[in-house]
Specification:
This protein is mainly alpha-helical. It has two domains: 62 residues, no CATH class; 209 residues, MetI-like (MetI-like fold, Orthogonal Bundle).
């Protein structure tokens, strides 16, 4: 037994068997990633470089290497591309930031001990677990200019002279300090929905991190005469920096790829059209699968650039 343990071939044999076992254990994961991630991305790249219509999806021409950049030319030469890209960025950044701010406020609200805290926590996560079709229908009904309860209440109480079509009016003029400005009403409404719908996700992560902050830090701050605002700024926020950065990364990725929320609320009308809506319009409105795939690749490229600089910045900060 002692000689076999000192034999190099014995150890190399064990190492080889362990490596082979590790490979076979990881093989299912690699297969899933290959089928569900790598292949769809490669196939989308292939179709974005070909003149593919909806009727060509079952044709043999789909496999011929007749590559062209006409799809990308169509996307970038479209007069709607740059306004839609700007709308996408505004919707993504504002919606992500709002959901995190609301999640932070909710986490701070229920962090302390009080009667009914568990019930309130359960209520706060309800927007996230409710079906998307149900909540968009509810919001559409509430904001409806004829039947919506919000407009009815505002007009009844004299807060509004007439109902406001929140989801169908692009610009709404207001006067602030003697200055007349226009706000993108429909876009503002869908951003509010985005923040309300997804703040529970941020709320759960932030609350978990808040509960892990040592109470001694707050006791030391109070002993030094720090006010509640100072304790929040100098103790709480630094402790939440990592989780807030991670949350913004996740929310940015998911919101940038969002389609169902805006489609169900506005169908992309009234200045709320984003790139995912353009993918749908190209693919199923114009039956141009190639242009839809090219738009999806533009979205993928933009997201890749964002991730590159974001992760580089996070690496430098750490």
């Amino acid at each position: 037994m002692g000689n076999s343990c000192r034999n190099p071939d014995f150890h190399s044999g064990i190492s080889h068997r362990e490596s082979r076992l590790a490979f076979w254990m990881l093989a299912p994961t690699f297969a899933v990633v290959l089928v569900l991630v790598v292949f769809p991305v490669a196939w989308n790249i292939w179709m974005s470089l070909k003149p593919v219509s909806l009727g060509d999806l079952r044709g043999a021409s789909l496999l011929t290497p007749d590559f062209t950049l006409d799809n990308f030319r169509k996307v970038f030469m479209d007069p709607d591309f740059w306004p839609v890209l700007l709308t996408t960025l505004i919707y993504t950044i504002a919606g992500s930031a709002l959901s995190i701010v609301l999640g932070l406020a909710a986490a701070l609200l229920v962090h302390g001990e009080f009667p009914g805290r568990g019930l309130l926590r359960g209520i706060l996560i309800s927007p996230y677990i409710a079906p998307i079709v149900a909540v968009t229908f509810t919001w559409s009904f509430i904001l409806d200019p004829q039947l919506g309860i919000l407009n009815w209440f505002a007009v009844e109480k004299g807060l509004l002279a007439q109902p406001i079509p929140f989801l169908s009016q692009r610009w709404y003029p207001i006067e602030l300090l003697g200055i007349k400005i226009r706000i993108p009403l429909a876009l503002f409404s869908v951003i509010l929905f985005e923040g309300w719908r997804y703040f529970p996700f941020a709320f759960l992560f932030i609350l978990a991190r808040l509960q892990a902050i040592p109470i001694e830090l707050y006791q030391a701050g109070a002993a030094d005469g720090a006010s509640p605002v100072q304790r929040f700024y100098y103790i709480t926020l630094p402790q939440l920096t990592t989780v807030l950065s991670t949350l913004f990364l996740f929310r940015f990725i998911w919101t940038l790829n969002k389609f169902d929320d805006i489609f169900l609320l506005t169908r992309g009308q009234a200045g709320t059209k984003v790139l995912t809506i353009k993918v749908y319009e190209y693919a199923f409105g114009e039956f141009n699968i190639g242009a839809g795939s090219a738009t999806a690749m533009v979205l993928f490229g933009f997201l890749s650039v964002f991730l590159f600089f974001y992760l580089r910045r996070m690496g430098n900060d750490s």
